[in-house]
Structures are given as C-alpha cells and as structure tokens.
Specification:
By secondary structure, this protein is an alpha+beta fold. The strands form eight sheets. Strands 17, 18, 19, 20, 23 and 26 form a six-stranded antiparallel sheet that branches. Strands 3-2-1-13 form a four-stranded parallel sheet, sandwiched between helices. It has a four-stranded antiparallel sheet with strand order 5-4-9-10, with no helix packed on it. The longest helix is centred in the middle third of the chain and has 31 residues, at about 380-410. It is flat. Homodimer.
C-alpha cells in the first residue's frame, strides 16, 4: 500500500454502450467510486476520477444486428443516455471519455505497437470458430453453448454467467452461432497473444505476497485461483468488423480485442483531461507517488488484476494499481439483473420517476452494497430505508433543529452558556466521527462508513430527545441556548460528512444552514464552533419526502410486466401430438355454453362445482380451477364445453363434461371462449 500519496488516479469500469446504466452498475462500481473520489477531494487531495463509454465490445455489434442499425448509431445513442444519467445522478467524473475517440484509438494502437516492437506478443495461427453461413469468424459473444464446468446450456463463448467461469469459445459443448443458429466449424486464422504465463512469478510476488493483507478476500481469492490454475497466452486481437485496427503489417481486417483496448481507455481519458485542463498526464500514471485504484464489478477482476497489470508490466513505464476493490453482484427482486431481458431498474427511468431523489437511491444502494457477497435490491427495502432512516432519522433531526432555531431565535445561532457534561460528551463524540468514517472509507467499506454517518444523525436525535429543549424553554431559556447551539453543530457537521454519500442532500442542507463552502473534515475534528453564534440560518425545508405505497407498487407492477413479457417471448409451444384422422376429431362434440352457477367443492382446494347451460341442457361439471378463479367471478362466463365426454364421479359428484382452458404468458389459466356476440348456447364448434 502507498502511504501518503501525492495524487490519486481513480478509475471506474467503462460501461458498455449497448444499453443504459442500471442499479447493478451503480452499486457495483459507480456509487462506491464516487464516494471515494468525493471523500478524497474533501480531504484536499489531488484526485483524478476517470471513466468513459466502452464502444468496441461485441455486445455493440450484437445490439446493432438486433436493431438493424449501425454500431455507430448504437454507441451514439447509449453514450448520450449514459453520459446524461451520470451527470443527473451526480457522479463526479473529472473526465468521461469514449473509446471511439481518436485519442483513444491512437493511445491503444501505440500501446500495442510498443509491445509488438519489444517482442512481447506471440504470433500464432489457431483454429477458431467460424460461421460458414454468415461467412465470418465468431467473436466470443456470438457463440453460445453448454458450459463445460457447470452444464449451463446458455453460456457465452467468453464467460458462463451462471457459474462465473471465464471461458474460450472453443471450450463450449455443442456451440451455436447466435447470428444464424448454425453449428460453427473450425477455421485457421492468425492472431497475436499476450503470454500471461511469462508473468506468473511477477503476479505471485505482486499480488499473492504483496497484497494478501489489504485486498478484498473476494478479489484476492479469484486472482489466486487463476494463478494457481496456471496462466496461458491470451489473444489480444480478433477477427471483427468493429473496433480498433491492429496497427501492424499482415493484420488487415483484424481488430484489437476489447479487453485489451478498454482498460487503456483509462489512460486515454487521462490524456484527454490533461489536454483540456492544461496539465501533464504522465504523473497520474507513471509517478510512484500516485495511488491507482480500479473500481470494478467481480466479472472484471481477472482483466484488472491479471491481464491489464501484465500489459502495464510489459510496457514498463506505468505504475500498478494499489487496490482493486471489486464488488459482487446486485440482484433485483430475487433475480439476476439482465440488460437483454430488461430485468433492471434503469437509472435514466428512475431519475424521471423519482425526480429530486438521487440521494435516496445512492443511500439504498450503499446501505445494501454487495461488497463481500451478492445482495438483493427490492423496492420494499428501498421504501423502508427512505421512510425509516432518511426521513425518520436524518431528516427528522435536521427539521427539528431548524424549526426550533427559527421559532426561538429567528434563525440566529444562539450564544451558548456553560456546557454540561452531556454537552461536552456529545461534542467530543461528534469530533471523533470524521476519523471513524475516514477509516471505513480508506478501507473501501462504504456501507460501514454510511452507517457511521447515520450514527451522527442518531447522535443529534438522541441529544434532542434527552434534553427536550421544547420543555426546558419555559423555565430555563438560557439552558436552551446551549442545547440548540450543540444541536446546530451536529447539523453543520452533517452537511459536510454526508457530501461523499449524499451530495444533493449536502447542497440542500448547506443552503438551509447558509454554509457557503463545505466544512473541512479536520475543522469538524478540531473545533466545536462550526456554526458560530450570531450566524443566520434559513427556513426549514424537508430534506427527504416519504415514499408512499402507491409509488412502490407502480415499480413492482412494471417489473411484473417485464417478467410476463420475458415469459411470453421465451415460451415454447408444446410439440405436436401424434396425428389423428378427421373421424377422430369429429367424435368430439364441442358446444358453446354459459356458467350459470359456481361453488367450491367442500374439502377440496382445487375443485369448483359448476352448473353450465350447454343449450342442450343444464349440467354439472366439476373443474379444477378453484385456485385460479373465485366462484362469483365466473358466473355468466361464456365457455367452450366438451359435452360428450363420458361422465366421471369426482368426490361423489358426477361431472358431465369438460371446459376448455389454456394458460397465458404468466402461466395462469384462461378460458377458451367464443369472441363473437350473438353465438347462442348449444352452437356446435367444428
């Protein structure tokens, strides 16, 4: 670990521009990296926080093919949505770039060329999967098949999303092309490989020995597993029609593999920032006094802890990451987030549907962050964290302090009198919180840090509840001056301490308290006079609004609609039964009927006893639909009845026919009934 670095370079994983940002991305990467960057800036540190759109992934080409547009149209569309979402959500990048930018193409090609000229690559002709019908080699994501490690039949050519294993497309069992559905053939092609096996000793010394005590167990464990399994050369080029050209002779039609060019995007984003700001870029990547930290999700651990460091080591002039605090995955309502299946809470939609409530989502995601294991986001938990914590604890304290200050002193901070032991103890505890929160943030325990921030609000609530200034004011107004002065110091501290976690709240609270610039964390620790006597504060405003059940139900209903749409899209029809002759069909007597009575069968959960007017007669039919329909809801329902089915006794009741049913996309029973008015009971169906 670097002690007291001169500067920090903080990177956040480049999002693929094949779809918008969702809460899984936020919880895994962007909220924690933003908390860390904002915290360091409040400490007065030299911070560079960079990111950008990853626009060369195969996912881009797949999206373009699916939508019938060009890859350029795809990346322009989603780069715009992602960029605006980050700005509106308050992610404080110093630069957000694009890998389609010329500066990135030049930087990535220059990086490749240096390693090529140094002889760091292996040039090799290999057999790759080829779709003869589409007349093209298949990139990893254009191949699906059975995972050789867990048996998942829908694994991609680069990774199994079920077990998390990193794969090569040729590892898949029964591979299929996602372009044509054909089984690919093997065909020879020339590519360049980074010989990772050459860097095993370096990686063992740097990570397994050097970072055993300070890297997160989930990160360290995955890296150790890879190294212990033995590293192999990995291709850095691909046969693609979209991406960065390989800048050497004999590589016509080949592109840099996206995992090679994407992390170089951090460097090109830094160059772009430095050129715009009139600064030097190299100290942020080549000075040993710079602390480099990568924020990523767990699916990117291997790339950022093994492959990219090997690239940097091969190049020779770059520093290595001091830490890679990768998070695990966030699930949604019990199911894995999926861009392709639309199973997500999209950031741009959230910002439209919950205007002005960016910090509520930041709070919910940080409180439930998947820092060491996969966690689950639910809308009910989101509502509870807002209503029971932000509103009831944080907002309640601030509101009481501001309302009472305006009521008793016209919004002017009162002059304190002699401090009691409780006052002294409270202010002493307050002074300790910056160091406590710092300790958690410096160890990348942002959930823990947020909990300590809320403890500051709890400290304020407890102080007011114990001291009860609204009662003391009648007999001892001098004492209330001190009480309110102490409470206002806690409120002032919160305006600064919450800035990394709840930046919009920090701005709002500072405006209410009329604090013109954020308080330094050291100031909070060193003095109790954060809001001096005589300072004028503003009127009370609610920091947080209660979220009602109706708003949450809308979101749950939206997800249920998505689930139904996915089921409908993926539902496969039952295979055709054995062929029959027309005479077999003609034996069935199908009639239009109407249910005129319905009641539950005693002591039977699934059965309803129906009286059905078939036009021929009124007969009893016992039907196993009680779990899907209430008796009173189906009286008067038009139905299709098989009337010549041999009678059968069910629980002592003779059933004289069968009602035709099917299931919808959600698996619920539905009646097969005539859709034309004027069709009489008893009409035959043939």
């Amino acid at each position: 670990m670097i002690q007291n670095p001169k500067r920090y370079t903080i990177t956040a994983a480049l999002p693929y521009t094949n779809g918008p940002i969702h809460i899984g991305h936020l919880a895994g990467v962007y909220v924690p990296s933003d908390i860390y960057s904002r915290y360091l800036r409040l400490q007065g540190r030299d911070v560079l926080f960079v990111c950008g759109s990853d626009e060369h992934g195969v996912a881009i080409s797949m999206k373009a093919k699916k939508e019938g547009i060009t890859p350029q149209e795809v990346i322009d569309k989603y780069d715009g949505i992602i960029r605006k979402s980050f700005i509106d959500f308050g992610i404080s990048f110093d630069n957000y770039s694009r890998t389609s930018a010329k500066i990135h193409h030049d930087t990535a090609q220059g990086f490749f060329k240096k390693l090529y000229d140094n002889g760091d690559f292996i040039e090799q002709v290999t057999e790759q999967l080829y779709d003869a019908k589409a007349d093209q080699f298949l990139a990893d994501r254009f191949v699906t098949g059975t995972c050789p490690k867990c048996g998942n039949e829908e694994a991609y050519g680069d990774q199994c999303e079920k077990c998390g294993s990193t794969l090569n497309a040729t590892d898949l069992i029964n591979p299929k092309s996602t372009i044509t559905g054909e089984t690919p053939i093997m065909k020879s092609t020339k590519h360049w490989f980074l010989p990772l096996d050459r860097y095993e000793d370096f990686l063992k010394e740097w990570i397994l020995d050097g970072h055993k005590g300070d890297w997160k167990p989930n990160v360290y464990g995955q890296v150790k597993s890879w190294i212990d399994g033995g590293l192999e050369p990995r291709a850095v080029t691909r046969d693609l029609d979209w991406g960065i050209d390989v800048p050497v002779a004999g590589a016509e039609g080949k592109k840099l593999y996206v995992w090679f060019d994407a992390p170089i995007g951090y460097i090109s984003a830094t160059k772009e920032w430095a050129a715009r700001e009139g600064k030097e870029w190299e100290p942020y990547w080549k000075d040993q006094d710079t602390k480099l930290v990568h924020f990523i999700g767990k699916d990117n651990i291997v790339f950022h802890c093994i492959i990219f460091p090997a690239m940097l080591k091969a190049e020779g002039s770059y520093i290595l990451p001091d830490n890679v605090p990768a998070n695990e995955f966030l699930n949604l309502e019990g199911n894995k987030l999926s861009t392709s299946k639309n199973w997500a809470v999209w950031l741009h939609e959230y910002l439209e549907e919950f205007p002005g409530q960016q910090d509520v989502l930041r709070y919910a995601l940080t409180s439930n962050a998947p820092e060491t294991k996969d966690n689950d986001f639910t809308w009910k938990d989101f509502q509870a964290r807002n209503n029971n914590e932000l509103v009831a604890i944080y907002g309640n304290f601030i509101n009481r302090v501001v309302v009472l200050t305006n009521k008793y002193y016209n919004g002017i901070v009162p002059t304190p009198n002699e401090l009691s032991e409780v006052d002294e103890a409270t202010l002493t505890e307050l002074k300790a919180y910056p160091a406590v929160i710092s300790s958690s943030v410096e160890r990348y325990r942002f959930r823990e840090a947020l909990g300590e921030l809320m403890n500051v609000a709890r400290l304020g609530n407890k102080y007011l509840a114990d001291e009860e200034p609204w009662k003391v004011i009648k007999d001892n107004p001098e004492r209330v001056q001190t009480q309110m002065y102490v409470a206002l110091q806690i409120a002032a501290a919160l305006s600064s301490l919450c800035e990394p976690f709840l930046p919009f709240t920090a701005i709002k609270l500072s405006r209410i308290l009329k604090i013109e610039s954020p308080l330094n964390w050291n100031t909070i620790t060193e003095t109790s006079d954060l809001l001096p006597a005589g300072h004028q504060i503003g009127e009370a405003e609610l920091l947080f609004a209660k979220i009602e059940d109706e708003e949450i139900q809308k979101q749950i209903d939206k997800l249920e609609a998505t689930k139904s749409a996915n089921i409908a899209e993926n539902k496969k029809a039952e295979p055709q039964k054995e062929a029959i002759q027309f005479d077999d069909f003609a034996k069935m007597d199908l009639r239009v009927g109407t249910i005129i009575e319905a009641e539950k069968m005693p002591k039977a959960n699934k059965l309803l006893v129906l009286k059905v007017d078939t036009g021929i007669d009124v007969r009893t039919i016992v039907s196993g639909i009680a779990e899907s329909f209430k008796p009173e809801d189906i009286v008067g329902k038009r139905v299709t009845v098989l009337v010549n089915l041999a009678p059968r006794a069910l629980r002592g009741v003779e059933s004289q026919g069968m009602i035709l049913m099917s299931t919808n996309a959600e698996g619920k029973l539905v009646f097969i009934n005539p859709d034309t008015d004027g069709v009489m009971n008893g009409e035959t169906i043939n």
